[in-house]
C-alpha cells in the first residue's frame, strides 16, 4: 500500500499508528480535515485481516466524517480511529486507556466517541486518559437512537423524491444489519407500517427485530436478492459493488452504513439503473449531530430536531443532482466542499482577545 500516496489523494492531514505491547493495543488514528473545527470521529474496534485494510478503513471513514459534518452544518472536521483485534474481548480497560493516551498526545485535534465494536462504557476508560472524548455515559451516550431517527427521516425524503409521497406505510424495506442504528431505524419503520426484511451475521440480533417488529429474516447473502422498495445498508461499508448492484430489486438505497459505495463509480451505476441513492454521510449524520450536541451542551430535543433536518438535506441533494445532471453522491460532495472552501477562504482578522 502506498500510504503517503493515498493520504495525498484523499486530502488527509495526519495518520498516526499507535502501539502498546503491554495490552496488545494496535490503533490507527486518521485526521482528514480540520478546516471547520477539531476532527471528530468514533473508535471502531474490528478484527481486520491486515494492517493495510485497517488503514484504508480509517482513512475512508475519516474523510466521510469531514463531509458529514460539513453537510450537517456543524463546526467539526473529520477523523476516525480503529483498534485492530477481537471486539468481544472482556479485558477492555487497559486497551482503551492506551487508546486514550494516544488521543491525548494530539492535543485536541481529534475527538473520539463510540463506533462499531465499542460502547459508552469503553469511552469511560478513554476518558480516564483524555478529555477529548464524547458519547459518555450520563451525557449524550449512545448516538444510535438519533442516528436511526436521522436515517428514517432521510429515507422518507428519498421516498418523497422518488414517489411524490414520503409515506413508508406498506413499503418493503430490506435492512442489512441488525445492530443499534438498524434497531432504532426499524422501530420507526414498524411504527409507520413498513414491511421489514432483516438480516445479520449475528442471528440473535436479527431475531430480536423479528420478534419485536414482525420482520422477515433472511440469510445474509440473500438480502440483495429480495424484491423490495428500499435497500437499507446498516452494517459495514462497500455493500454497493459490482457483485451486488445487478442483484438489487429496489428503487431506493438509503441506510445507516458508512462508505456504502465500494468505489465512487458505483454511484454512477446506481444512477444509470434508475436507483435513487441517498448519500451515506448525509443520511447517517445523526450520530455526529448527537455528539456535537453533547460537546455544546444541547438538550436532547435540540439534537433530535437537528437530526430531523436530514430530511431537507437529502431532498436538497436530489434537487442539486437533477439541476446539475450529476449523481447524488457527487451532489453531496459538492455541497460539503463548497462549505469547507468558503470557511477556508475567510480572511484572518485580529479578534482582540489574543486568540490565534
SSE order: HEEEEHEHEHHEHEHEEEHEHHHHH
How many beta-strand elements? 12
Arithmetic mean pLDDT: 94
User: Helix segment count?
Assistant: 13
CATH hierarchy: architecture of the largest domain: 3-Layer(aba) Sandwich
CATH class of the largest domain: Alpha Beta
Report Rg. Answer: 20 Å
For the record, give the distance between the C-alpha atoms at the N and C termini, rounded to a whole number: 37 Å
Structural class per helix/strand content?
alpha/beta
In terms of DSSP E residues, the strand content is 5-15%
For the report, how would you describe the main beta sheet? 6 strands, mixed
Q: Any idea of the CATH topology of the largest domain?
A: Rossmann fold
Which overall shape is indicated by the principal axes computed on the Cα atoms? globular
Could you name the CATH homologous superfamily of the largest domain? Answer: NAD(P)-binding Rossmann-like Domain
Domain count, please report it. Answer: 2
Helix fraction, binned, reads 40-55%
Unreliable runs: none
Amino acid at each position: 500500500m502506498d500510504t503517503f500516496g493515498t493520504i495525498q489523494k484523499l486530502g488527509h492531514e495526519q495518520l498516526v499508528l499507535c502501539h502498546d505491547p503491554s495490552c496488545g493495543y494496535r490503533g490507527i488514528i486518521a485526521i482528514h480535515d480540520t478546516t471547520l473545527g477539531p476532527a471528530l470521529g468514533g473508535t471502531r474496534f474490528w478484527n481486520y485481516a491486515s494492517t493495510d485494510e485497517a488503514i484504508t478503513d480509517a482513512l475512508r471513514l475519516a474523510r466521510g466524517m469531514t463531509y458529514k459534518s460539513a453537510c450537517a452544518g456543524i463546526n467539526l472536521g473529520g477523523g476516525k480511529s480503529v483498534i485492530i483485534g477481537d471486539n468481544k474481548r472482556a479485558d477492555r480497560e487497559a486497551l482503551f486507556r492506551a487508546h486514550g493516551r494516544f488521543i491525548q498526545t494530539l492535543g485536541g485535534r481529534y475527538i473520539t466517541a463510540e463506533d462499531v465494536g465499542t460502547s459508552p462504557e469503553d469511552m469511560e476508560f478513554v476518558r480516564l486518559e483524555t478529555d477529548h472524548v464524547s458519547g459518555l455515559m450520563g451525557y449524550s451516550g449512545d448516538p444510535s437512537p438519533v442516528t436511526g431517527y436521522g436515517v428514517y427521516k432521510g429515507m422518507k425524503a428519498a421516498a418523497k423524491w422518488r414517489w411524490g409521497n414520503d409515506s413508508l406505510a406498506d413499503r418493503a424495506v430490506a435492512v442489512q444489519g441488525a445492530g443499534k442504528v438498524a434497531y432504532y431505524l426499524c422501530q420507526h419503520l414498524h411504527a409507520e407500517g413498513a414491511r421489514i426484511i432483516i438480516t445479520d451475521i449475528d442471528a440473535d440480533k436479527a431475531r430480536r427485530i423479528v420478534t419485536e417488529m414482525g420482520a422477515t429474516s433472511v440469510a445474509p447473502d440473500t438480502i440483495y436478492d429480495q424484491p423490495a422498495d428500499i435497500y437499507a445498508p446498516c452494517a459495514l461499508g462497500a455493500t454497493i459493488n459490482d457483485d451486488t448492484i445487478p442483484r438489487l430489486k429496489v428503487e431506493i438505497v438509503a441506510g445507516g452504513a458508512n462508505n456504502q459505495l465500494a468505489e465512487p463509480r458505483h454511484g454512477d451505476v446506481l444512477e444509470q439503473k434508475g436507483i435513487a441513492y441517498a448519500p451515506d454521510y448525509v443520511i447517517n449524520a445523526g450520530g455526529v449531530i448527537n455528539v456535537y450536541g453533547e460537546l455544546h451542551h444541547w438538550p436532547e430535543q435540540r439534537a433530535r430536531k437537528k437530526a430531523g433536518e436530514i430530511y431537507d438535506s437529502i431532498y436538497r441533494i436530489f434537487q442539486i443532482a437533477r439541476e446539475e445532471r450529476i449523481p447524488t453522491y457527487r451532489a453531496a460532495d459538492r455541497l460539503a466542499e463548497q462549505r469547507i472552501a468558503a470557511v477556508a477562504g475567510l480572511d484572518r482578522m485580529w479578534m482582540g482577545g489574543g486568540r490565534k
